[in-house]
């Protein structure tokens, strides 16, 4: 009997084509934890506005970063990580990679665990900061699929690891040589954005989030994505010896007209360029694998934006991908959770 480790990332289209992107977006944005509006509103927005327009645009973006042999960076970096973790953990572990949306699927991973008679499954969503639209939906879908089985496997979910020392050390190890070589005037810690309403929903009694300027510094809401992002960035800044005036925390990838958490990365890029910053480095600590949001949105589009605004050069600090420090961190997180006493989990189907 072996222990299973399920590494879960968000997902990626099968190809950089409008058809493949449309299929992916239909599943991704059809999730009520992602587009958390009424079912009718979600259907109208998805089928009348997003799906007719966005797939072609997104397909061009994916094509700009697509590897002709290995495919999407998110997929091949995640596969490399899973393979390296499996080698390091050894024969007592069965490691599977799955995507919340698309392939490789969560259902296939659970089938593989069942065929190997694993005695328990440690589920590690690869999202450092908690959000219902990432960690939450991954956990929910795993429980839903596991609960449909006659023999429901014991599941142990790893919580958000935004302040895990090994995670922070891995990002420090990746970033330090880049920053030393590039010598930036300023550093951005750019996290994926969320609608403000999704942060508010995590505040159970409505007395913490966005009630005062210092809410994210008070650490009173354990599910606040914005507070966890701030904590990650500040911890990394301390490790990298960045003074407070040498870095900015911001949020990218917003969609639609509703308010998203601020400050917005694209606004900050223009502001720091106008303020005289010539060399700008960007770290994206919400992503443990390079993907569309890092390589294309920051490494290509934000770089062009910064230059157009008067900056000299923008460098994207690579993500953790399958670097040895991150492999070590994942193995440590998995073995630590496997050592915990696990109570049986019963989930309805």
CATH topology of the largest domain: Rossmann fold
Total helical elements: 11
Number of strands: 8
* CATH architecture label of the largest domain: 3-Layer(aba) Sandwich
Low-confidence stretches: 343-349
For this structure, the quaternary state is single chain
Mean pLDDT across every amino acid position: 95
Q: What string gives the helices and strands in order?
A: EHHHEHEHEHEHHEHEHEH
**Class per helix and strand makeup:** alpha/beta
From the alpha carbons, calculate the radius of gyration and give it in angstroms: 20 Å
Q: Biggest sheet, open or closed, and with what strands and sense?
A: 4 strands, parallel
Task: State the separation between the terminal residues, measured CA to CA.
Answer: 25 Å
Strand portion: 5-15%
- CATH class category of the largest domain: Alpha Beta
Share of residues in helices: 40-55%
- Write out the strand line-up for the largest beta sheet, numbering strands in chain order: 2-1-3-4
How many structural domains does the protein architecture include? 2
Overall outline: globular
């Amino acid at each position: 009997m072996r222990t299973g480790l399920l590494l879960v990332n968000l997902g990626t289209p099968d190809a950089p084509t409008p058809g493949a992107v449309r299929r992916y977006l239909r599943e991704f944005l059809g999730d009520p934890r992602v587009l958390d509006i009424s079912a009718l509103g979600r259907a109208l927005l998805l089928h009348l506005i997003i799906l007719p327009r966005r797939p072609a645009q997104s397909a061009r973006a994916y094509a700009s970063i697509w590897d002709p042999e290995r495919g999407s960076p998110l997929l091949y970096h995640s596969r490399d990580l899973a393979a390296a973790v499996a080698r390091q953990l050894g024969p007592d572990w069965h490691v599977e990679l799955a995507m919340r949306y698309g392939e490789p699927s969560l259902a296939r991973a659970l089938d593989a665990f069942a065929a190997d008679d694993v005695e328990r499954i440690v589920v590690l969503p690869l999202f450092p900061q908690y959000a219902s639209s990432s960690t939450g939906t991954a956990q929910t879908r795993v429980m839903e699929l596991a609960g449909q089985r006659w023999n429901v496997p014991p599941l142990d979910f790893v919580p958000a690891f935004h302040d895990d020392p090994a995670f922070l050390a891995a990002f420090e190890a990746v970033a330090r040589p880049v920053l030393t070589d590039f010598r930036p005037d300023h550093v951005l810690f750019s996290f994926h954005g969320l609608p403000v309403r999704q942060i508010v929903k995590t505040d159970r009694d409505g007395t913490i989030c966005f009630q005062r300027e210092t809410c994210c510094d008070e650490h009173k809401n354990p599910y606040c994505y914005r507070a966890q992002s701030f904590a990650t960035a500040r911890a990394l800044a301390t490790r990298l010896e960045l003074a407070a005036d040498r870095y900015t925390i911001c949020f990218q990838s917003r969609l639609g007209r509703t308010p998203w958490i601020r400050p917005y990365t694209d606004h900050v890029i223009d502001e720091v360029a106008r303020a005289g910053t010539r060399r700008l480095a960007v770290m994206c600590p919400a992503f443990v694998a390079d993907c569309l949001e890092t390589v294309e949105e920051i490494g290509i589009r934000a770089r062009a934006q910064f230059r157009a605004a008067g900056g000299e050069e923008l460098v994207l600090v690579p993500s953790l991908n399958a670097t040895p420090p991150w492999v070590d961190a994942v193995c440590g997180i998995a073995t630590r959770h496997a050592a915990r006493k696990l109570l049986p989990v019963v989930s309805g189907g």
